[in-house]
UniProtKB/TrEMBL annotation:
It comes from Jejuia pallidilutea. PROSITE patterns: TONB_DEPENDENT_REC_3 (PS52016). The keyword Transport applies. Keywords: Cell outer membrane, Membrane, TonB box, Transmembrane, Transmembrane beta strand, Transport. Gene3D superfamilies: TonB-dependent receptor, beta-barrel domain. InterPro entries: Beta-barrel_TonB (IPR000531), Beta-barrel_TonB_sf (IPR036942), TonB-dep_OMP_SusC/RagA (IPR023996), TonB-dep_rcpt-like (IPR039426). Transmembrane segments: none annotated. The keyword Transmembrane applies. It is found in: Cell outer membrane. This is Putative outer membrane protein. Belongs to the TonB-dependent receptor family.
Amino acid sequence: MVDNILSWKKEFGDHTFDATFLWNVEELSSRRSFQQASDFAPNENLGFNGLQLGNPEFRVIDNNDETRRGDALMARVNYRFKDKYLLTASVRRDGFSAFGERNPRATFPAAALGWVISNESFFPKGDFVNNLKLRFSWGKNGNRSIGNYAALSRLNSNQYLTEDGVAQGVIFGGTLANPNLRWEQTEAFNLGLDFGLLSNRINGTVELYKANTRDLLVNRGLPAISGFTNVNTNIGEVQNKGIEVSINSVNINKPNFKWSSGVVFSLNRNEIVDLFNDTETVTINGEEVTRPVNDVQNGWFVGQDIDVIWEYNITGVWQQGEEAEAARFGQFPGDYKAEDVNGDDQFTQLEDKQFIGYTTPRWRLGLRNDFTFLKNFNLSTFLRGEFGHKGNLNQLTHPQTNLYDRINTYNIPYWTAENPSNEYGSLLQNDQAFETGLDVFRDRSYLRIQDVTLSYNLPKTVLDKVKFDSASMYVSVRNLYTFTKWEGLDPESNNAPLPRIFSLGFRFSL
């Protein structure tokens, strides 16, 4: 990779200009060779070159050679007037060898404005509001996260037996080419406010944003009649919008006691604006309706969040005494019951699945508190939470364990005749009544005490004796406790429970 950067800065009275120009070129080549053999006597003179002496039935040879190239031109200008008005404008032209021959390059402009309102002559002077800045930005950026030859028809090789029983090598097209493959682009707007109150004892930022991502890079499945399984292509448009708030404060500032806090709040909403730029005509309640084409297989629907949960809506558990009604659906007491939307006594996905929630948090929160007391003691706590989303907890329908003498790994009050729960079904579920099986989703919200640290700073009289610039002893706990209704291993990852980590240490500098 080679970067050539030219910078220029000049002041003309109250005007300050700062310009940067960039020219970039890059190339990355990788070569890999894998050879494997068995049933041969190693020879220290030949080394791996003796692999051909192995059993032909177990020899494996795999080679790969890839190269990718990219280039970019960029120009950026910053302008400032009296530390009150700020302007930034830039343009970047990028090229990448992995895209189709018709669209290897794209242009990404951007601009930003800033106004330091608190520096205006009309702004009231005082300690209540001592800093106020308004910001606005607009820009485009690109995504090139694809394989090095995603736009090309790659050749595969294999062997087949002829009529004479001879193995014959053959080369064939393994992927479908797409000369129109192009950059995924995101256009974003951002409006921000920076503020400081009470001589900056309270300061923070508020950000509003909206971003539209078009021409998403996806590996789209193809019908079998095409002769290919998938193709790399650009489809659709997704919109993200939200708010982020960050506030820091000094709550108490006394000689023997200090308390400061910081809180971060974020909220994001997304929507699939378009998928295939195509429509379909369907009959609903006897009327023909034209609507955008959705991707049912992946659970993507135009007008919905990209993380929306499309699933049967569980309404409870079949109980004893409801055998006859459950039998209409091929179910039994202890099985989960769901809403039969069209009332045909069957659970089919197109007729009965509904939008029942989201898999990513609807909002996030972080809270930090720092205390200093008795001059040399410090206590720091950090809480973090994610709220408003659901997770797949299929352990409620199909317990997973590798221990043959234990069918249940989770401490869950499953339904039994003696425990007629309407929230938890029986240990082994009969989900054959559902066309595509049944996934159980539960609230995955949580608030975690993530970090707690108590430290003691050695006083200066001790530091002078031991010749240290600073020194402290500390004890800390990570993942102290999690408040959640989630019954799985961990509400954040669900792959494994997070360990609770205790640390004891001593820090010093000379």
